[in-house]
């Protein structure tokens, strides 16, 4: 009888082996395909063939989640990447809808005050800003920025860029005093993002020029015609910070 029970026990274990193998394999496959898609989406220039490949990778990622009945927030990651893909295909409205859907998934899985939800607020703000929907974008930037800055640190490139995205919205809406305050508080941080976002530097330079002309911000350092010219020359100088705060 004892041998029979041992046999049954071993049989049950053997039957479950494929399940455990698959359940461990699926997340690895998902991360591999999603990671490859994200890497491609970071390329500033993508041909249609590249976009199709990203689409296939994201479709495969979602199929893996469906087959494994995944209940984590991984689907939110897929939807976020689909949003980026939609934007690169010139579909801003679809990109916005997908980003909102992604945020809803992260909110459900991680809670409304999580870093993921705040970071997606900033990403949604960026999409709205690029569509010149400044007031709506500002709401998202204000809602998500502090959580992201607390989590990553105010000197992180992402937090720095998002601070000055708010400045762009405020300048566009004519709220110059508030824009100038944000610039003064974070002016020494611009160097952090100098190389990663040319649009960031171009817009920020234009905003600083306008605020300077209104007497709300200082002039650029000596030897520079304007702020845009100064920012375009920023580079990594060890031990040096770009002092742009008012004295």
Explain this structure to me?
- With 247 residues, the protein is mainly α.
- It is elongated and about 60 Å long.
- It folds into two domains: 47-152, Serine Threonine Protein Phosphatase 5, Tetratricopeptide repeat; 154-247.
- Helix content is 72%, strand content 0%.
- The chain contains ten helices and no strands.
Which terms would index this structure?
about 250 residues, mainly alpha, Serine Threonine Protein Phosphatase 5, Tetratricopeptide repeat, 2 domains, 10 helices, elongated
Alpha-carbon Rg, integer: 24 Å
> What is the N-to-C succession of helices and strands?
HHHHHHHHHH
CATH topology of the largest domain: Serine Threonine Protein Phosphatase 5, Tetratricopeptide repeat
- Beta-strand proportion: under 5%
Query: What is the overall pLDDT average?
Result: 80
Q: What is the count of structural domains?
A: 2
Unreliable runs, pLDDT <50, ≥5 residues? 4-24, 235-247
The end-to-end span amounts to: 88 Å
Question: How many H/I helices?
Answer: 10
């Amino acid at each position: 009888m004892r041998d029979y029970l041992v046999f049954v026990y071993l049989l049950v274990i053997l039957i479950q082996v494929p399940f455990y193998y698959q359940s461990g394999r699926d997340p690895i496959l998902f991360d591999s395909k999603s990671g490859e898609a994200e890497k491609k989406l970071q390329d500033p220039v993508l041909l249609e063939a590249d976009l199709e490949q990203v689409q296939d990778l994201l479709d495969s990622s979602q199929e893996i989640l469906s087959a494994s009945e995944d209940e984590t927030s991984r689907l939110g990651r897929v939807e976020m990447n689909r949003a980026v893909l939609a934007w690169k295909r010139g579909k801003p409205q679809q990109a916005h809808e997908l980003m909102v859907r992604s945020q809803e998934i992260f909110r459900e899985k991680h809670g409304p005050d999580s870093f993921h939800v705040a970071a997606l607020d900033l990403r949604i703000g960026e999409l709205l800003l690029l569509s010149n929907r400044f007031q709506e974008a500002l709401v998202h930037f204000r809602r998500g920025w502090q959580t992201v800055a607390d989590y990553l640190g105010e000197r992180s490139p992402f937090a720095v860029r998002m601070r000055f995205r708010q400045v762009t919205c405020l300048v566009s809406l004519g709220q110059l005093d508030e824009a100038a305050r944000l610039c003064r508080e974070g002016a020494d941080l611009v160097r952090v993002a100098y190389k990663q976002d040319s649009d960031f530097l171009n817009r920020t330079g234009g905003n600083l020029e306008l605020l300077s002309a209104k007497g709300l911000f200082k002039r650029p350092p000596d030897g520079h015609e304007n702020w845009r010219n100064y920012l375009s020359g920023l580079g990594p100088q060890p031990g040096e910070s770009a002092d742009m705060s008012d004295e």
